Amino acid sequence: MIDLRSDTVTQPTPAMREAMASAVVGDDVFGEDPTINRLQEMAAERMGKAAGLFVPSGTMGNLLAVMAHCQRGDEALMGTFGHTFLHEAGGVSALGGVFAHTLPNQKDGTLRLEDIEEGIRSDDIHEPPSRLLILENTQNRCGGIPLSREYTEAVAHVAHKHGVKVHVDGARIFNAAAALHEPAKDLVRKADSVTFCLSKGLCAPVGSVLCGDEDFIKRARRLRKMLGGGMRQAGILAAAGIVALEQMTERLSEDHQRAKDLADGLARIPGIGFEMGMPQTNMLFPSLIPSLRVSAEHVAQMLAKEGIKVDVVSDLLFRLVTHYWISDEDVQKTIQCFESVISK
Ligand code: TLP
Hints:
CATH architecture of the largest domain: 3-Layer(aba) Sandwich
Bound molecules: ligand TLP
Distance between the termini: 22 Å
CATH class of the largest domain: Alpha Beta
Radius of gyration: 20 Å
Order of helices and strands: EHHEHEHHEHEHEHHEEHHHEEEHEEEH
Largest sheet: 7 strands, mixed
C-alpha cells in the first residue's frame, strides 16, 4: 500500500518500538512517569516555553488550550479553514462553552491583521469577550502552508495589544520549521501556547504535547484529567515521542522534496491542475479539470485498486501527504497510476 491520505497513517519506526519496549514508566497522574516527564521537558525546550503536557491527541491539545485560556462565554477567534473549526467536532463550544468566532483564511494560510483587529470585540455587555486567537502552522487546509515568524509576531502584537492570548496549533510546526529553515521555537516565540503532534510526520504512534507557561500548563493538566486524558503508565507512548524529537524532525525536508516531485509529475498530466499552488511542505492538493467529467472519488477508487490511497477533499479536489514511509519509487508509481487512470 502507498498511503498518501495523511501523515497520521505513519507507523512507528523500529527505533521507536525498541524504545517503547524498554521504557521506564510510572503513574503520570501522580506526575511519576520519568519518560513522560523527560518528553515534556524536551518538548518545552524545543518550543521555547516553560512547561509541556503530554496529551493523547492534537485535538485534545487544542481543546485544552482553549479551555485553559478562556472561561465559558468567552470567544476564540480562528480561521474558517482552521482545524479547530473544521475537524475537532465543535469541542470548543460543546465542551468548553467557548464561542468560535471565525475569520477568513487567505490563500496563503494567514488571517488578515485587519480582520483580527476588527474582529476583536470591544468591552460591550452584548458581546462575548474575545480571549484567544488561534493560528495553525502549517496551515493544513490552505495547502500545508508554513506561516512565517514575522507574521506570527505581527498577529501576536495585535492580539496582545487587546489582551487576547495567542495559541498556535502547531500540529506540523516542525514541517514549518524545516520549510522556513528556522527553529520551531522561533516561530512560536510570541505565542502564549502551542500544541505540536508527535504522531504525524514524526511517526510516533500516539500523542501531542501542549506547551506554555507554568500556570497555563497547571490549568491544562487539571482539564486534561477532567476530560479523561490523564493516562497512567503512558511513558510507553512518550518513549516513542522522545525518539520522534531526537531522530525525526531533521529529516522532514525529505518529505517536502518528495511532495514537490510528486506535484511536478502530476502537474505534467493533462487534466490535473494545482489551483491551490505547488506544495511548500508535505501536502499537495491536486485537482481535476471539470472538462474531464470524472470525479475525484472515482479516481481515488481506481487508484485504490493499484494499492494507492489518496484523500478526497471535494468533487474535484484531492489531498496527498508525503511522509517517512513514502519512497521515491512510491512517488513515481503514484504519478504513473494517476496518468493511466485519468487517460482511460
Ligand atoms: N489532521 C488530520 C485530520 O483530522 C484532518 C489530517 O489528516 O490532517 N491540528 C491540525 C492542523 C491537524 O491537521 C490535525 C489532524 C489535528 C490538529 C488533530 O490531531 P489529532 O488527529 O492528533 O487529534
